[in-house]
Amino acid sequence: MRQRKFNSQALRQLAEELLHEIAEEGAITAEEREDLTTALVRQWITYAGNATLLLGEQQVYLVLGKTPLGRPCVVPEPALRGWMKELTRDWKIIPDDLDEIIDQLNRGQSAETVNADGIPLRLWVDPKERSRGVEPLVKENIPPGTKINYQIIATNLLEQQFGDGLDPEETEALACSMAKQWRQYEGHACLFIDGPRQLFFKLSEGSDGGCEVVTQSLAFDLEPLLLALGLSPGVIPEAIARINLNQEIEFRDREGIPSLLWHDPKARRILVRPVAADPGSEQSGSSAIFCGKCAAVLKPWRAGEKQQTCPHCGHTTTLA
């Protein structure tokens, strides 16, 4: 794959203009501008045109783009709120240390500190992956046999992401869904939210009994895909809500065939299968759903059907 070429001088001019505007709003000082200019240019080159800055409690992604006339520009994209609250509440980082931590993250996308319990921590941000995290630099002594409470972890993540935007009942339902997804899909969970965006939560368990969750936010609009599969516009909001609850959705496709769809957060795909007419029907969830060559969605398989030709690329899929 060819690497994207960057004009460092042009990038520096963009960074200077952007930081001048931010300084006028009082978010940074004039003394910080020089170092942050260098940091932004380095990030754009290192992270394929992506950078991030933390301005107080708000994090913003700064993506290289072009105007309608082809001139280079910076497209700001606010990150999800709540990380500073998570750092002080869950990781017990001393509030007075946040300014120094933010400065380290802005300059090098990594920071080290010691929390109120004396535990050294490393914090990091990745502007390309839209992810951020915290990890202890020493292993905690967790008693053998301690079970991880996925629902409590999910509840904390939802509070960090949405603050007071969810009522208790919705938080509980979504936390149950995330916990179920982590168990079902080997540590992967996903929510579709307004923006439109996808939130991915990758939970990794350590050999010491602890765990780490990396959150990733990506721009994605689920509605066009659901419409293309045959769902009517009026049921789209309910369908997205049920997908967020890790439920299957019954519907009739464009040919009127009863089908089921669901989302696989590990594969990051919407999957579809026809509903079997009876237990002995040859239609089954093991039938191929996507073209093996171009990954286009195939028509639901009819009873006795063994081959399909992809309408997009002409590849023939054969059932075993």
Compose a concise summary of this entry.
With 320 residues, the protein is α+β, with helices and mostly antiparallel strands.
Write the layout of secondary structure elements.
Blueprint: H1 8-24, H2 30-46, E1 50-55, E2 58-66, E3 72-78, H3 83-89, H4 98-108, E4 110-114, E5 120-126, E6 131-136, H5 150-162, H6 168-184, E7 188-193, E8 197-205, E9 211-219, H7 223-229, H8 236-244, E10 249-252, E11 258-264, E12 269-274, E13 307-309, E14 316-318
Antiparallel strand pairs: 1-2, 2-3, 4-5, 5-6, 6-9, 7-8, 8-9, 10-11, 11-12, 13-14
Textual characterization of the structure:
By secondary structure, this protein is of the alpha+beta class. Among the domains are: 8-78, no CATH class; 223-318, no CATH class. It has 8 helices and 14 strands. It has helices spanning 8-24, 30-46, 83-89, 98-108, 150-162, 168-184, 223-229, 236-244, and strands spanning 50-55, 58-66, 72-78, 110-114, 120-126, 131-136, 188-193, 197-205, 211-219, 249-252, 258-264, 269-274, 307-309, 316-318. The protein has a 6-stranded antiparallel beta sheet. Helix 1 packs across helix 2 (30-46). The chain starts with 7 loop residues before the first helix and ends with a strand. The model is unreliable at 277-288 (pLDDT under 50).
State the share of residues found in helices, binned by percent: 25-40%
Q: What percent of residues are in strands?
A: 25-35%
| SS summary, helix count | 8
User: Judging from the principal axes of the Cα atoms, what is the shape?
Assistant: globular
Record the strand order, biggest sheet: 4-5-6-9-8-7
**How widely separated are the two ends?**
35 Å
Mean pLDDT across all amino acids: 82
> How many strand segments?
14
Q: Please tell me how large the radius of gyration is.
A: 23 Å
SSE string, helices as H and strands as E: HHEEEHHEEEHHEEEHHEEEEE
Biggest sheet features: 6 strands, antiparallel
Structural class: alpha+beta
Weakly predicted, low-confidence segments: 277-288
